[in-house]
Specification:
2 copies of one chain form a homodimer. With 127 residues, chain A is mostly helical. Chain A contains 6 helices and 3 strands, in the order αααβααββα. In chain A, strands 1-3-2 form a 3-stranded antiparallel sheet. The structure holds a DNA duplex (30 and 30 nucleotides).
DNA sequence: GTGCACTATTCTCTTAATGTCAATAGATAG
DNA sequence: CTATCTATTGACATTAAGAGAATAGTGCAC
């Protein structure tokens, strides 16, 4: 029952719950871009790749929805894969040129974010 | 007219607009904790401190609202300051013990976030 | 052959957070 | 006396996220 938002830290910390901070979710979009740049993939496989990146608390339906929205933006494209699945057909996504462009902007934003976080750490350690 | 969310990267990049990624906003809460740990302050002064940290696109009312919510959580407390203002009375906030506790959890989360971003950079540079 | 676990995706409803802007008002300089 | 800067609040609209039900194919054990 992940519930995000204001006051996350205490709720997550005091009880060892599966709540994630809003930060994790806001990394989802660029993370999917990066993963799909590495290689095409479908929702279910991306879910386990997210797990490998310690983004374990994101709800599957959020990932699927995000992929659909990214396809609407034409950052990614997909085809149905009916053969070679271990279950029902899967939708395999790949990055488009526009998606690569979006990833470039996102990369800059991630750099900026790292800088801000580093400044915060500096302030924390100072005190 | 900052509009966040899905597709931020292209909207922000293609036109040089004042749109921020969802990442920036999700740093607001821990940033306010850090700034108030450094020293007590009021909303208006915190706004310029956020500017100094390159978090320029966050709307003032969002900052004020966040402060009020953090006070409800008892992470911070406030008093009205009627003297020594350069305008109307200001509400001066300071960190509570619970706020320090929250900051500790947030610090861990920021470390985790930095790690994830670094992993993403590694993947980006590899490709 | 049927029941179960795993794979795989979509849809919908609810709740929470953000965006935006108007309103209010004290202080100060010209 | 009015424009600008300081300072905060409140309300409303919009967007995103959380959660779970529904659907369905595959493969294995019994």
């Amino acid at each position: 029952m992940p519930r995000r938002g204001r006051g996350w830290a205490m709720r997550a910390g005091s009880r060892g719950e599966e709540i994630h901070s809003p930060l994790v979710v806001s990394l989802l979009e660029p993370t999917l871009l990066v993963l799909l740049k590495e290689q095409p993939g479908h929702g279910y496989s991306l879910l386990s790749e997210l797990n490998a990146l310690d983004m374990t608390t994101i709800h599957p339906s959020v990932v699927y929805r995000t992929l659909r929205e990214m396809e609407t933006l034409e950052w990614i494209e997909s085809d149905w894969d009916t053969d070679q699945t271990q279950g029902p057909p899967r939708r395999t996504y790949r990055l488009t040129a526009q998606g690569e462009e979006a990833l470039r902007y996102w990369t800059q934003e991630l750099e900026k974010t790292n800088l801000i976080i580093d400044k915060l750490f500096a302030k924390i350690q100072k005190g």
